[in-house]
Amino acid sequence: MKKMTLSERLNILRAGVLGANDGIVSVAGIVIGVAGARTSTFTILISGIAGLLAGALSMAGGEYVSVSTQKDTEKSLVKQERESLKTDYDGELQKLIEIYQAKGLSDESARQVATELMKKDALGVQAQEVLGFKLNDYANPFSAALSSLFSFSVGAILPLLTIVLLPASIRIWFTFVAVLIALAITGYTSAYLGNAPTRPAVIRNCLVGMLTMVITYVVGHYIGI
Which of 68, 99, 130 is the last residue of a domain? Predict the structure, then answer.
């Protein structure tokens, strides 16, 4: 089994954080909207569970389809590249030479490096340098789907438990605050892992969550009367 690099691990972690963020916002919007219209804890609970399942399964399905399509595309490109090496080896070698020249190697060095690498593993080096990915290093659609399913569900549990466990008189406001705190954490974490400024990310994340909850509450409160 290929060992993941630190960069790959950070990307997976960041994707998990973003999935949890989606779960927080989506289910918070649902349960607060329903709570604005109904006081029944059971109704809010069922609505939240339905939103959690629908959102998690939707994200998992979308991730599976997306990664599967990417994998199929990469395999198709590799197949085309394999055929090109059989029918036009010199042309593929010239492509590689030009790539190394563009990276700053001299004409002689670029030709020497490209020739040696092509002798060792022509398809592998063409996949990496021309197509932009490592040969046989395909993403697993099942792993991607399960990761999205899990991360969304973990995020969704927070607003769901908060709003059903607290007394009706305070549950909306406490859920509102708890969600904003959670969104501040996920916004900071995703920005930190992506080497981006953390403050703007936290502010944007909290504003989006706040707007979502306010709109769903208003709709639930006034339409549900």
Answer: 130
pLDDT category at 115 given cuts 50, 70, 90 is: confident
- b/e map of 36-53 (b: 16 or more CB within 10 Å)? bbeeebeebbebbbebbe
Would residue 183 count as lying in a domain?
yes
Give the global pTM.
0.77
Q: Sign of torsion, CA 160 164 167 169?
A: positive
Residue 136 domain-assigned (yes or no): no
2-21 average pLDDT score: 67
Q: How far apart are CA 194 and CA 203, in angstroms?
A: 16
Q: Which two tokens stand for residue 123?
A: 């398809």
- Domain count for the chain: 2
